[in-house]
Amino acid sequence: MTATSKIEMAPVILFDLDGTLVDSAVDLLNALNVIVQQTGKSALTLAELRPVVSKGARAMLAVAFPDLSEEQRLHYLQPFLDCYQRAVAQYSTAFADVETVLSSIEASGSRWGIVTNKPHYLAKEVVHSMGWTHRSAVLIGGDSLPRKKPDPDQLFHACELLAVQASDCVYVGDDERDVLAAKHAGMKSIAVLWGYREAHDDPKNWQADVMCNTPLDLLGSGVLLK
């Protein structure tokens, strides 16, 4: 399927950001290692950090500082985010063929947007670096509302801003929280398998409507179609 193929899709397709549209692991690793090395610890490897990237900053800090309590790790949260903001998308890239998927959605006349647990100010910079600021119909961050995924509030808010019903939307993500949020919102869900997850995470247990191995599989999944 080409980027200009005319197919009828669901009116709105919403995506998670990190691990679904964008591979941001290296930039997050570099930022976290600034903090890690300031404490005298050895730098983390990408293999150590990558599996938990989709679970957010607190999960990444738990990998970096397993000997500290959650409360103690929170001391490093804002410094970590500040380091990340200074080089928020230096090495981040869209996953292979994501652009083809987004262009196909646009060519069909449907809209797409982003709902992420990443703080909005950081997500906005990543989206801008990808050239998607004026293409993404909506961007909801993890701090846009009091509650975030797996609660459905962000997805409902996206629907409200886009003036669509949740039942007319599909949500695509690489973490169980994405699937749960979609289910709670009454949306169809797609679990993508190219993102970030720990060895014990089994996407089959998430019970998404569809699982996709590659971005191009999204276009043939059936769930995106009307």
Describe the structure.
The protein has 226 residues and is α/β, with parallel strands linked by helices. 38% of the residues lie in helices and 12% in strands. The strands form two sheets. Strands 5-4-1-6-7-8 form a six-stranded parallel beta sheet, sandwiched between helices. Strands 2-3 form a two-stranded antiparallel sheet. The model is unreliable at 1-5 (pLDDT under 50). It has two domains: 12-23 and 93-219, Rossmann fold, CATH 3.40.50; 25-86. The protein has helices at 25-38, 46-49, 57-64, 70-73, 77-86, 98-108, 120-129, 153-162, 176-185, 215-219, and strands at 12-15, 22-23, 93-94, 111-115, 139-140, 169-173, 188-192, 210-212.
In short:
By secondary structure, the protein is α/β, with parallel strands linked by helices. It has helices at 25-38, 46-49, 57-64, 70-73, 77-86, 98-108, 120-129, 153-162, 176-185, 215-219; strands spanning 12-15, 22-23, 93-94, 111-115, 139-140, 169-173, 188-192, 210-212. It has a six-stranded parallel beta sheet, sandwiched between helices. The chain has a two-stranded antiparallel ribbon with strand order 2-3.
Beta fraction: 5-15%
Number of domains: 2
What is the end-to-end distance? 17 Å
Low-confidence stretches: 1-5
Strand order of the largest sheet: 5-4-1-6-7-8
Rg, nearest Å: 17 Å
CATH topology of the largest domain: Rossmann fold
Number of helices: 10
The main pleated sheet reads as:
6 strands, parallel
Number of strands: 8
- What would you call the shape? globular
CATH superfamily of the largest domain: HAD superfamily/HAD-like
Name the CATH architecture of the largest domain.
3-Layer(aba) Sandwich
The percentage helix is 25-40%
Query: What top-tier CATH class of the largest domain fits best?
Result: Alpha Beta
Mean pLDDT: 95
Query: Which structural class best describes the helix and strand composition?
Result: alpha/beta
Compressed to H and E, one letter per element, the order equals EEHHHHHEHEHEHEHEEH
